[in-house]
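Record type: ASSEMBLY
Status: queued
Input:
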Amino acid sequence: MPTRSKHLLPGFGLTMGISLFYISLIIVLPIAAMLLKLAGMGFPEFWRIVTSNRALAAYRVTFSSAFYATILNGIIGLLLAWVLTRYRFPGRRILDALVDLPFALPTAVAGLVLVTLFANTGWYGQFLEPNGIKVNYTQIGIVAAMTFTSIPFVVRAVQPVLEEVDESLEAAARTLGASRWQIFARIIWPTIMPAFIGGCVLSFARSLGEFGAVVFIAGNLPGLTEIVSLLIFIRLEEYSYEGAAALAFVLLLVAFLTLLATNALSAHQTRYAERST
Amino acid sequence: MTTHAPHSPGAIALIVLAFILAGLILVTPLALIFSFALREGMAVYFANILEPNTLHAIWLTVMTAIIVVPINIVVGASLAWLVTRFRFRGRQLLISLIELPASMSPIVAGVVYLFLYGGQGLLGPTLQGLGIQVMFTPLAIVLVSLFVTAPFAARELIPLMSQQGTEDEEAALSLGANGWQMFWFVTLPNISWAMAYGAVLTNARVMGEFGAVSVVSGAIRGQTNTLPLQINLLFNDFNVTGAFAAASTLTLIAVLTLLLKSILESRRHG
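Status: finished
Output:
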Protein backbone atom coordinates (compact mmCIF):
# COMPACT_ATOMS: atom_id res chain seq x y z
CA MET A 1 0.00 0.00 0.00
CA PRO A 2 1.13 3.58 -0.59
CA THR A 3 2.94 5.44 2.11
CA ARG A 4 1.07 8.39 3.58
CA SER A 5 3.73 10.87 2.48
CA LYS A 6 3.06 10.10 -1.18
CA HIS A 7 -0.49 11.39 -0.87
CA LEU A 8 0.30 15.04 -1.32
CA LEU A 9 -2.72 15.51 -3.54
CA PRO A 10 -6.30 15.07 -2.38
CA GLY A 11 -8.97 12.83 -3.83
CA PHE A 12 -7.43 9.38 -3.43
CA GLY A 13 -10.42 7.99 -1.52
CA LEU A 14 -13.06 9.62 -3.71
CA THR A 15 -11.58 8.68 -7.08
CA MET A 16 -10.71 5.19 -5.85
CA GLY A 17 -14.30 4.78 -4.69
CA ILE A 18 -15.81 5.94 -7.97
CA SER A 19 -13.39 3.88 -10.07
CA LEU A 20 -13.79 0.67 -8.08
CA PHE A 21 -17.57 0.98 -7.92
CA TYR A 22 -17.85 1.60 -11.65
CA ILE A 23 -15.35 -1.01 -12.78
CA SER A 24 -16.91 -3.64 -10.50
CA LEU A 25 -20.49 -2.93 -11.48
CA ILE A 26 -20.14 -2.16 -15.18
CA ILE A 27 -17.16 -4.27 -16.27
CA VAL A 28 -16.20 -7.02 -13.81
CA LEU A 29 -19.61 -8.19 -12.57
CA PRO A 30 -21.10 -8.93 -16.04
CA ILE A 31 -17.95 -10.74 -17.19
CA ALA A 32 -17.88 -12.72 -13.93
CA ALA A 33 -21.54 -13.66 -14.45
CA MET A 34 -20.71 -15.21 -17.81
CA LEU A 35 -17.64 -17.02 -16.48
CA LEU A 36 -19.78 -18.41 -13.65
CA LYS A 37 -22.25 -19.73 -16.19
CA LEU A 38 -19.40 -21.37 -18.05
CA ALA A 39 -17.96 -22.90 -14.89
CA GLY A 40 -21.30 -24.58 -14.25
CA MET A 41 -21.25 -26.14 -17.69
CA GLY A 42 -18.43 -28.65 -17.37
CA PHE A 43 -15.48 -29.05 -19.68
CA PRO A 44 -16.72 -31.88 -21.97
CA GLU A 45 -19.85 -29.91 -22.85
CA PHE A 46 -17.80 -26.73 -23.39
CA TRP A 47 -15.34 -28.58 -25.62
CA ARG A 48 -18.15 -30.19 -27.63
CA ILE A 49 -19.65 -26.74 -28.37
CA VAL A 50 -16.45 -24.91 -29.25
CA THR A 51 -15.22 -27.73 -31.51
CA SER A 52 -18.52 -28.45 -33.30
CA ASN A 53 -18.27 -28.43 -37.09
CA ARG A 54 -20.35 -25.30 -37.38
CA ALA A 55 -18.15 -23.48 -34.85
CA LEU A 56 -14.96 -24.63 -36.58
CA ALA A 57 -16.29 -23.36 -39.91
CA ALA A 58 -17.18 -20.04 -38.28
CA TYR A 59 -13.65 -19.68 -36.82
CA ARG A 60 -12.20 -20.45 -40.24
CA VAL A 61 -14.34 -17.81 -41.98
CA THR A 62 -13.77 -15.21 -39.24
CA PHE A 63 -10.02 -15.66 -38.81
CA SER A 64 -9.20 -15.93 -42.52
CA SER A 65 -11.34 -12.90 -43.37
CA ALA A 66 -9.78 -10.88 -40.56
CA PHE A 67 -6.33 -11.95 -41.79
CA TYR A 68 -7.00 -10.74 -45.36
CA ALA A 69 -8.57 -7.52 -44.06
CA THR A 70 -5.52 -6.87 -41.88
CA ILE A 71 -3.13 -7.33 -44.82
CA LEU A 72 -5.18 -4.87 -46.87
CA ASN A 73 -5.26 -2.44 -43.96
CA GLY A 74 -1.53 -2.78 -43.44
CA ILE A 75 -0.89 -1.72 -47.04
CA ILE A 76 -3.54 1.03 -47.19
CA GLY A 77 -2.65 2.24 -43.69
CA LEU A 78 1.06 2.48 -44.38
CA LEU A 79 0.43 4.38 -47.61
CA LEU A 80 -1.96 6.85 -45.95
CA ALA A 81 0.29 7.38 -42.93
CA TRP A 82 3.29 7.96 -45.20
CA VAL A 83 1.51 10.45 -47.44
CA LEU A 84 -0.02 12.31 -44.49
CA THR A 85 3.24 12.75 -42.57
CA ARG A 86 5.80 13.10 -45.36
CA TYR A 87 4.18 15.50 -47.77
CA ARG A 88 2.37 18.83 -47.57
CA PHE A 89 -0.33 19.23 -50.21
CA PRO A 90 -3.75 20.86 -50.59
CA GLY A 91 -6.49 18.78 -48.97
CA ARG A 92 -4.12 17.10 -46.51
CA ARG A 93 -6.14 18.07 -43.42
CA ILE A 94 -9.37 16.85 -45.00
CA LEU A 95 -7.73 13.55 -45.90
CA ASP A 96 -6.39 13.29 -42.34
CA ALA A 97 -9.84 13.88 -40.84
CA LEU A 98 -11.51 11.47 -43.30
CA VAL A 99 -9.30 8.59 -42.17
CA ASP A 100 -11.33 8.42 -38.94
CA LEU A 101 -14.65 8.10 -40.78
CA PRO A 102 -14.89 4.31 -40.21
CA PHE A 103 -14.67 4.90 -36.43
CA ALA A 104 -17.19 7.73 -36.47
CA LEU A 105 -19.67 6.03 -38.77
CA PRO A 106 -21.90 3.47 -37.01
CA THR A 107 -21.14 -0.07 -38.17
CA ALA A 108 -24.77 -0.63 -39.19
CA VAL A 109 -24.53 2.36 -41.53
CA ALA A 110 -21.25 1.01 -42.91
CA GLY A 111 -22.91 -2.35 -43.56
CA LEU A 112 -25.91 -0.74 -45.24
CA VAL A 113 -23.64 1.33 -47.51
CA LEU A 114 -21.37 -1.57 -48.47
CA VAL A 115 -24.20 -3.95 -49.32
CA THR A 116 -25.74 -1.22 -51.50
CA LEU A 117 -22.43 -0.31 -53.19
CA PHE A 118 -21.72 -3.94 -54.12
CA ALA A 119 -25.27 -4.97 -55.10
CA ASN A 120 -25.44 -6.18 -58.72
CA THR A 121 -26.92 -2.82 -59.74
CA GLY A 122 -24.89 -0.85 -57.19
CA TRP A 123 -22.26 1.80 -57.88
CA TYR A 124 -19.41 -0.74 -57.62
CA GLY A 125 -21.28 -4.01 -58.14
CA GLN A 126 -22.38 -3.14 -61.69
CA PHE A 127 -18.72 -3.15 -62.75
CA LEU A 128 -17.59 -6.09 -60.64
CA GLU A 129 -20.37 -8.64 -61.20
CA PRO A 130 -20.03 -8.82 -65.04
CA ASN A 131 -16.38 -9.69 -64.41
CA GLY A 132 -17.37 -12.54 -62.15
CA ILE A 133 -16.52 -10.83 -58.87
CA LYS A 134 -19.41 -11.28 -56.49
CA VAL A 135 -18.94 -9.40 -53.20
CA ASN A 136 -22.30 -9.47 -51.45
CA TYR A 137 -23.10 -12.67 -49.58
CA THR A 138 -19.58 -14.06 -50.13
CA GLN A 139 -16.39 -14.00 -48.08
CA ILE A 140 -15.14 -11.05 -50.16
CA GLY A 141 -17.99 -9.05 -48.67
CA ILE A 142 -16.92 -10.00 -45.15
CA VAL A 143 -13.35 -8.94 -45.93
CA ALA A 144 -14.63 -5.64 -47.39
CA ALA A 145 -16.68 -4.92 -44.26
CA MET A 146 -13.79 -5.80 -41.91
CA THR A 147 -11.34 -3.73 -43.95
CA PHE A 148 -13.59 -0.67 -43.96
CA THR A 149 -14.33 -0.72 -40.23
CA SER A 150 -10.67 -1.00 -39.17
CA ILE A 151 -8.88 1.31 -41.63
CA PRO A 152 -7.84 3.93 -39.02
CA PHE A 153 -5.86 1.54 -36.76
CA VAL A 154 -2.64 1.21 -38.78
CA VAL A 155 -2.70 4.85 -39.95
CA ARG A 156 -3.08 6.20 -36.42
CA ALA A 157 -0.49 3.82 -34.99
CA VAL A 158 2.20 4.58 -37.59
CA GLN A 159 1.59 8.35 -38.07
CA PRO A 160 3.06 9.66 -34.78
CA VAL A 161 6.13 7.40 -35.00
CA LEU A 162 6.76 8.37 -38.60
CA GLU A 163 6.67 12.02 -37.57
CA GLU A 164 9.42 11.35 -35.02
CA VAL A 165 11.84 9.55 -37.36
CA ASP A 166 15.21 11.22 -36.93
CA GLU A 167 15.81 13.21 -40.09
CA SER A 168 19.51 13.71 -39.45
CA LEU A 169 19.93 9.94 -39.81
CA GLU A 170 18.19 10.05 -43.17
CA ALA A 171 20.28 13.01 -44.29
CA ALA A 172 23.45 11.23 -43.21
CA ALA A 173 22.43 8.10 -45.10
CA ARG A 174 21.68 10.17 -48.18
CA THR A 175 25.10 11.88 -48.15
CA LEU A 176 26.70 8.47 -47.73
CA GLY A 177 25.02 7.44 -50.96
CA ALA A 178 22.08 5.36 -49.74
CA SER A 179 19.21 4.99 -52.19
CA ARG A 180 15.71 6.03 -51.16
CA TRP A 181 14.75 2.37 -50.87
CA GLN A 182 17.77 1.65 -48.66
CA ILE A 183 16.86 4.59 -46.42
CA PHE A 184 13.35 3.21 -46.04
CA ALA A 185 14.44 -0.37 -45.45
CA ARG A 186 17.34 0.37 -43.08
CA ILE A 187 16.26 3.48 -41.17
CA ILE A 188 12.53 4.18 -41.44
CA TRP A 189 11.09 0.66 -41.40
CA PRO A 190 12.93 -0.55 -38.26
CA THR A 191 11.67 2.56 -36.43
CA ILE A 192 8.03 2.26 -37.40
CA MET A 193 7.76 -1.55 -37.38
CA PRO A 194 6.64 -2.01 -33.74
CA ALA A 195 3.92 0.63 -34.22
CA PHE A 196 2.94 -0.91 -37.54
CA ILE A 197 2.58 -4.37 -36.00
CA GLY A 198 0.69 -2.87 -33.05
CA GLY A 199 -1.75 -1.24 -35.48
CA CYS A 200 -2.14 -4.52 -37.36
CA VAL A 201 -2.88 -6.43 -34.13
CA LEU A 202 -5.61 -3.92 -33.21
CA SER A 203 -7.00 -4.06 -36.72
CA PHE A 204 -7.06 -7.88 -36.62
CA ALA A 205 -8.75 -7.92 -33.20
CA ARG A 206 -11.37 -5.43 -34.30
CA SER A 207 -12.05 -7.46 -37.46
CA LEU A 208 -12.49 -10.67 -35.45
CA GLY A 209 -15.21 -9.05 -33.36
CA GLU A 210 -16.88 -6.96 -36.06
CA PHE A 211 -20.59 -7.65 -36.23
CA GLY A 212 -22.71 -4.73 -37.41
CA ALA A 213 -21.09 -4.16 -40.78
CA VAL A 214 -20.62 -7.86 -41.53
CA VAL A 215 -24.20 -9.06 -40.92
CA PHE A 216 -25.52 -6.73 -43.63
CA ILE A 217 -23.18 -7.99 -46.34
CA ALA A 218 -22.30 -11.58 -45.40
CA GLY A 219 -25.53 -13.37 -46.23
CA ASN A 220 -24.83 -15.47 -43.15
CA LEU A 221 -24.82 -18.95 -44.67
CA PRO A 222 -23.73 -21.50 -42.03
CA GLY A 223 -20.30 -22.90 -42.88
CA LEU A 224 -19.69 -20.43 -45.70
CA THR A 225 -20.22 -16.84 -44.59
CA GLU A 226 -21.18 -17.25 -40.94
CA ILE A 227 -18.80 -15.43 -38.57
CA VAL A 228 -18.37 -16.30 -34.88
CA SER A 229 -20.21 -13.20 -33.62
CA LEU A 230 -23.20 -14.10 -35.75
CA LEU A 231 -23.18 -17.73 -34.60
CA ILE A 232 -23.30 -16.45 -31.01
CA PHE A 233 -26.25 -14.23 -31.90
CA ILE A 234 -28.06 -17.17 -33.55
CA ARG A 235 -27.47 -19.38 -30.47
CA LEU A 236 -29.06 -16.65 -28.32
CA GLU A 237 -32.08 -16.49 -30.57
CA GLU A 238 -32.41 -20.27 -30.22
CA TYR A 239 -32.22 -19.81 -26.41
CA SER A 240 -29.07 -21.94 -26.40
CA TYR A 241 -27.35 -19.84 -23.74
CA GLU A 242 -24.61 -22.42 -23.05
CA GLY A 243 -23.72 -22.41 -26.71
CA ALA A 244 -23.55 -18.62 -26.77
CA ALA A 245 -21.48 -18.46 -23.56
CA ALA A 246 -18.93 -21.02 -24.74
CA LEU A 247 -18.37 -19.27 -28.08
CA ALA A 248 -18.33 -15.84 -26.41
CA PHE A 249 -15.61 -17.17 -24.11
CA VAL A 250 -13.49 -18.08 -27.15
CA LEU A 251 -13.79 -14.51 -28.46
CA LEU A 252 -13.15 -13.12 -24.97
CA LEU A 253 -9.96 -15.18 -24.72
CA VAL A 254 -8.79 -13.86 -28.09
CA ALA A 255 -9.55 -10.30 -26.96
CA PHE A 256 -7.55 -10.87 -23.78
CA LEU A 257 -4.57 -12.23 -25.72
CA THR A 258 -4.74 -9.20 -28.02
CA LEU A 259 -4.66 -6.88 -25.03
CA LEU A 260 -1.60 -8.71 -23.67
CA ALA A 261 0.11 -8.53 -27.05
CA THR A 262 -0.50 -4.79 -27.45
CA ASN A 263 0.63 -4.12 -23.87
CA ALA A 264 3.84 -6.07 -24.50
CA LEU A 265 4.38 -4.17 -27.74
CA SER A 266 3.88 -0.77 -26.15
CA ALA A 267 6.22 -1.74 -23.31
CA HIS A 268 8.76 -2.73 -25.95
CA GLN A 269 8.27 0.61 -27.71
CA THR A 270 8.67 2.54 -24.46
CA ARG A 271 11.94 0.72 -23.72
CA TYR A 272 13.05 1.40 -27.26
CA ALA A 273 12.25 5.10 -26.94
CA GLU A 274 14.05 5.34 -23.58
CA ARG A 275 17.13 3.64 -25.00
CA SER A 276 17.31 5.95 -27.98
CA THR A 277 17.11 9.20 -25.99
CA MET B 1 8.81 17.49 -40.06
CA THR B 2 10.06 19.65 -42.89
CA THR B 3 7.93 20.20 -45.94
CA HIS B 4 8.93 18.20 -48.95
CA ALA B 5 8.15 20.57 -51.79
CA PRO B 6 8.73 20.50 -54.68
CA HIS B 7 7.49 16.94 -54.80
CA SER B 8 9.24 14.27 -56.78
CA PRO B 9 7.17 12.35 -59.36
CA GLY B 10 7.10 9.40 -56.97
CA ALA B 11 5.68 11.57 -54.19
CA ILE B 12 2.99 12.96 -56.47
CA ALA B 13 2.06 9.43 -57.56
CA LEU B 14 1.69 8.33 -53.90
CA ILE B 15 -0.43 11.38 -53.05
CA VAL B 16 -2.70 10.75 -56.04
CA LEU B 17 -2.99 7.06 -55.07
CA ALA B 18 -3.93 8.03 -51.51
CA PHE B 19 -6.66 10.35 -52.80
CA ILE B 20 -8.02 7.70 -55.17
CA LEU B 21 -8.17 5.14 -52.34
CA ALA B 22 -9.77 7.63 -49.94
CA GLY B 23 -12.25 8.58 -52.65
CA LEU B 24 -13.27 4.98 -53.32
CA ILE B 25 -13.28 3.77 -49.72
CA LEU B 26 -14.35 6.83 -47.72
CA VAL B 27 -15.92 9.57 -49.86
CA THR B 28 -18.12 7.44 -52.14
CA PRO B 29 -19.89 5.74 -49.19
CA LEU B 30 -20.71 9.18 -47.71
CA ALA B 31 -22.07 10.38 -51.05
CA LEU B 32 -24.10 7.20 -51.48
CA ILE B 33 -25.86 7.60 -48.11
CA PHE B 34 -27.26 11.05 -48.93
CA SER B 35 -27.94 10.20 -52.54
CA PHE B 36 -30.07 7.18 -51.54
CA ALA B 37 -31.76 8.95 -48.62
CA LEU B 38 -32.88 11.79 -50.89
CA ARG B 39 -33.55 9.79 -54.07
CA GLU B 40 -37.34 10.02 -53.72
CA GLY B 41 -37.30 13.72 -52.91
CA MET B 42 -37.26 15.88 -49.81
CA ALA B 43 -40.90 15.19 -48.94
CA VAL B 44 -40.33 11.43 -48.74
CA TYR B 45 -37.08 12.01 -46.87
CA PHE B 46 -38.77 13.99 -44.11
CA ALA B 47 -41.71 11.59 -44.03
CA ASN B 48 -39.21 8.78 -43.47
CA ILE B 49 -37.44 10.64 -40.66
CA LEU B 50 -40.75 11.59 -39.02
CA GLU B 51 -42.14 8.06 -39.20
CA PRO B 52 -43.12 7.34 -35.56
CA ASN B 53 -40.83 4.31 -35.05
CA THR B 54 -37.83 6.07 -36.58
CA LEU B 55 -38.57 9.20 -34.56
CA HIS B 56 -38.78 7.11 -31.39
CA ALA B 57 -35.48 5.44 -32.29
CA ILE B 58 -33.86 8.87 -32.68
CA TRP B 59 -35.24 9.93 -29.31
CA LEU B 60 -34.03 6.75 -27.57
CA THR B 61 -30.57 7.05 -29.14
CA VAL B 62 -30.20 10.69 -28.09
CA MET B 63 -31.44 9.98 -24.54
CA THR B 64 -28.97 7.10 -24.16
CA ALA B 65 -26.11 9.37 -25.22
CA ILE B 66 -27.26 12.13 -22.85
CA ILE B 67 -27.09 9.69 -19.93
CA VAL B 68 -23.96 7.72 -20.89
CA VAL B 69 -21.57 10.46 -22.03
CA PRO B 70 -21.52 12.54 -18.78
CA ILE B 71 -21.20 9.42 -16.59
CA ASN B 72 -18.26 8.10 -18.56
CA ILE B 73 -16.55 11.51 -18.60
CA VAL B 74 -16.80 11.79 -14.80
CA VAL B 75 -15.63 8.22 -14.27
CA GLY B 76 -12.86 8.61 -16.86
CA ALA B 77 -11.60 11.76 -15.12
CA SER B 78 -11.76 10.05 -11.69
CA LEU B 79 -9.84 7.05 -12.91
CA ALA B 80 -7.28 9.20 -14.70
CA TRP B 81 -6.76 11.26 -11.53
CA LEU B 82 -6.39 8.08 -9.48
CA VAL B 83 -3.85 6.33 -11.71
CA THR B 84 -1.79 9.39 -12.66
CA ARG B 85 -1.59 11.06 -9.22
CA PHE B 86 -1.13 8.07 -6.94
CA ARG B 87 0.95 4.91 -6.95
CA PHE B 88 -0.74 1.92 -5.37
CA ARG B 89 -0.92 -1.83 -5.74
CA GLY B 90 -3.38 -2.91 -8.44
CA ARG B 91 -2.96 0.33 -10.38
CA GLN B 92 -1.98 -1.42 -13.61
CA LEU B 93 -4.85 -3.88 -13.16
CA LEU B 94 -7.37 -1.00 -12.99
CA ILE B 95 -5.98 0.44 -16.24
CA SER B 96 -6.21 -2.96 -17.93
CA LEU B 97 -9.77 -3.54 -16.69
CA ILE B 98 -11.05 -0.21 -18.01
CA GLU B 99 -9.38 -1.03 -21.36
CA LEU B 100 -10.91 -4.50 -21.59
CA PRO B 101 -14.23 -3.53 -23.25
CA ALA B 102 -12.35 -1.88 -26.13
CA SER B 103 -10.87 -5.17 -27.26
CA MET B 104 -14.08 -7.19 -26.83
CA SER B 105 -16.48 -8.02 -29.62
CA PRO B 106 -19.70 -6.00 -29.21
CA ILE B 107 -21.65 -9.25 -29.33
CA VAL B 108 -19.67 -10.61 -26.39
CA ALA B 109 -20.40 -7.38 -24.52
CA GLY B 110 -24.09 -8.00 -25.06
CA VAL B 111 -23.78 -11.65 -24.02
CA VAL B 112 -22.06 -10.91 -20.69
CA TYR B 113 -24.89 -8.51 -19.81
CA LEU B 114 -27.42 -11.18 -20.72
CA PHE B 115 -25.75 -13.54 -18.24
CA LEU B 116 -26.03 -10.93 -15.51
CA TYR B 117 -29.51 -9.49 -15.99
CA GLY B 118 -31.22 -12.06 -18.26
CA GLY B 119 -33.94 -14.49 -17.19
CA GLN B 120 -31.32 -17.20 -16.50
CA GLY B 121 -28.66 -14.69 -15.49
CA LEU B 122 -26.86 -14.21 -12.19
CA LEU B 123 -29.02 -11.34 -10.91
CA GLY B 124 -31.90 -11.41 -13.40
CA PRO B 125 -34.28 -13.72 -11.48
CA THR B 126 -33.62 -11.95 -8.14
CA LEU B 127 -34.26 -8.54 -9.65
CA GLN B 128 -37.37 -9.82 -11.40
CA GLY B 129 -38.62 -11.07 -8.04
CA LEU B 130 -38.27 -7.50 -6.82
CA GLY B 131 -40.21 -6.29 -9.85
CA ILE B 132 -37.17 -4.85 -11.62
CA GLN B 133 -36.82 -5.79 -15.27
CA VAL B 134 -33.46 -4.80 -16.78
CA MET B 135 -33.11 -6.91 -19.90
CA PHE B 136 -34.94 -5.70 -23.01
CA THR B 137 -35.54 -2.23 -21.52
CA PRO B 138 -33.82 1.13 -22.18
CA LEU B 139 -31.91 0.56 -18.90
CA ALA B 140 -30.13 -2.41 -20.47
CA ILE B 141 -29.21 -0.24 -23.47
CA VAL B 142 -27.72 2.38 -21.14
CA LEU B 143 -25.74 -0.20 -19.13
CA VAL B 144 -24.28 -1.94 -22.15
CA SER B 145 -23.43 1.44 -23.71
CA LEU B 146 -21.59 2.39 -20.50
CA PHE B 147 -19.66 -0.87 -20.86
CA VAL B 148 -18.58 -0.52 -24.49
CA THR B 149 -17.50 3.13 -24.10
CA ALA B 150 -15.86 2.77 -20.66
CA PRO B 151 -12.26 3.22 -21.94
CA PHE B 152 -12.85 6.19 -24.27
CA ALA B 153 -12.49 9.14 -21.87
CA ALA B 154 -9.89 7.51 -19.62
CA ARG B 155 -7.72 6.62 -22.59
CA GLU B 156 -7.55 10.30 -23.63
CA LEU B 157 -7.02 11.64 -20.11
CA ILE B 158 -4.45 9.20 -18.67
CA PRO B 159 -1.56 10.00 -21.08
CA LEU B 160 -2.28 13.74 -20.91
CA MET B 161 -2.45 13.93 -17.12
CA SER B 162 0.64 11.80 -16.57
CA GLN B 163 2.52 14.03 -19.01
CA GLN B 164 1.29 17.24 -17.36
CA GLY B 165 2.54 16.17 -13.96
CA THR B 166 1.42 17.50 -10.59
CA GLU B 167 3.35 20.76 -10.17
CA ASP B 168 0.44 23.10 -10.95
CA GLU B 169 -1.83 21.27 -8.55
CA GLU B 170 0.74 21.16 -5.78
CA ALA B 171 1.32 24.91 -6.23
CA ALA B 172 -2.42 25.57 -5.92
CA LEU B 173 -2.59 23.52 -2.71
CA SER B 174 0.43 25.20 -1.18
CA LEU B 175 -1.22 28.58 -1.90
CA GLY B 176 -4.16 27.45 0.22
CA ALA B 177 -6.66 26.11 -2.30
CA ASN B 178 -8.85 23.26 -1.13
CA GLY B 179 -9.30 20.09 -3.19
CA TRP B 180 -12.31 21.25 -5.16
CA GLN B 181 -10.82 24.68 -5.89
CA MET B 182 -7.67 22.99 -7.13
CA PHE B 183 -9.77 20.75 -9.38
CA TRP B 184 -11.99 23.52 -10.81
CA PHE B 185 -9.33 26.17 -11.34
CA VAL B 186 -6.19 24.15 -12.10
CA THR B 187 -6.91 20.58 -13.21
CA LEU B 188 -10.10 21.10 -15.22
CA PRO B 189 -8.79 23.89 -17.48
CA ASN B 190 -5.75 21.73 -18.24
CA ILE B 191 -7.77 18.71 -19.30
CA SER B 192 -10.93 20.30 -20.72
CA TRP B 193 -9.94 19.77 -24.39
CA ALA B 194 -9.07 16.15 -23.84
CA MET B 195 -12.36 15.70 -21.97
CA ALA B 196 -14.28 17.21 -24.86
CA TYR B 197 -12.41 14.93 -27.22
CA GLY B 198 -13.29 11.90 -25.09
CA ALA B 199 -16.92 13.03 -25.00
CA VAL B 200 -17.06 13.29 -28.79
CA LEU B 201 -15.64 9.78 -29.22
CA THR B 202 -17.93 8.34 -26.54
CA ASN B 203 -20.97 9.98 -28.09
CA ALA B 204 -20.18 8.64 -31.57
CA ARG B 205 -19.82 5.10 -30.26
CA VAL B 206 -22.94 5.23 -28.05
CA MET B 207 -25.12 6.50 -30.87
CA GLY B 208 -23.72 3.96 -33.32
CA GLU B 209 -23.46 0.84 -31.15
CA PHE B 210 -25.16 -2.08 -32.87
CA GLY B 211 -23.92 -5.51 -31.76
CA ALA B 212 -24.12 -5.12 -27.99
CA VAL B 213 -27.41 -3.24 -28.08
CA SER B 214 -28.99 -5.77 -30.44
CA VAL B 215 -28.39 -8.51 -27.83
CA VAL B 216 -29.76 -6.69 -24.78
CA SER B 217 -32.48 -4.45 -26.19
CA GLY B 218 -34.79 -7.02 -27.74
CA ALA B 219 -35.26 -4.50 -30.58
CA ILE B 220 -38.93 -3.90 -29.82
CA ARG B 221 -40.27 -1.44 -32.42
CA GLY B 222 -41.22 1.89 -30.92
CA GLN B 223 -39.86 0.81 -27.52
CA THR B 224 -36.27 -0.43 -27.35
CA ASN B 225 -35.16 0.14 -30.91
CA THR B 226 -32.20 2.48 -31.25
CA LEU B 227 -31.31 4.09 -34.58
CA PRO B 228 -28.78 1.48 -35.73
CA LEU B 229 -31.30 -1.30 -34.97
CA GLN B 230 -34.02 0.65 -36.76
CA ILE B 231 -31.78 0.88 -39.85
CA ASN B 232 -31.40 -2.89 -39.80
CA LEU B 233 -35.16 -3.42 -39.42
CA LEU B 234 -36.00 -1.06 -42.28
CA PHE B 235 -33.40 -2.74 -44.49
CA ASN B 236 -34.83 -6.19 -43.70
CA ASP B 237 -38.30 -4.81 -44.53
CA PHE B 238 -36.92 -3.86 -47.99
CA ASN B 239 -37.51 -0.18 -47.17
CA VAL B 240 -34.09 0.86 -48.50
CA THR B 241 -34.88 4.56 -48.84
CA GLY B 242 -36.21 4.60 -45.28
CA ALA B 243 -33.10 2.81 -44.02
CA PHE B 244 -30.88 5.38 -45.73
CA ALA B 245 -32.96 8.25 -44.36
CA ALA B 246 -32.43 6.91 -40.82
CA ALA B 247 -28.75 6.29 -41.64
CA SER B 248 -28.33 9.86 -42.88
CA THR B 249 -29.04 11.23 -39.38
CA LEU B 250 -26.26 9.09 -37.89
CA THR B 251 -24.01 10.00 -40.81
CA LEU B 252 -24.48 13.71 -40.11
CA ILE B 253 -23.45 13.04 -36.52
CA ALA B 254 -20.43 11.09 -37.79
CA VAL B 255 -19.35 13.97 -40.05
CA LEU B 256 -19.86 16.39 -37.15
CA THR B 257 -17.75 14.07 -34.98
CA LEU B 258 -14.91 14.18 -37.52
CA LEU B 259 -15.09 17.98 -37.66
CA LEU B 260 -15.05 18.37 -33.87
CA LYS B 261 -12.29 15.79 -33.58
CA SER B 262 -10.17 17.64 -36.10
CA ILE B 263 -10.72 20.97 -34.31
CA LEU B 264 -10.08 19.51 -30.84
CA GLU B 265 -6.94 17.74 -32.02
CA SER B 266 -5.42 20.94 -33.38
CA ARG B 267 -6.37 22.70 -30.11
CA ARG B 268 -4.70 20.04 -28.04
CA HIS B 269 -1.52 20.01 -30.07
CA GLY B 270 -1.58 23.74 -30.71
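Annotation: Chain B touches chain A through 99 residues (CB under 8 Å).
Annotation: Residues 1-37 of chain B form one domain.
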